Amino acid sequence: IMTYAFGFGALTVLILQPAAIVQSVGLPAGAWMSIAVLSVVSTVSGFALYTNGLKYLSAGSASITATLEPVIATGLALVLLGEMIGVIQMLGGAFVVGAVMLLARGKSNS
Question: Average pLDDT, whole number, for the chain?
Answer without folding.
Answer: 84
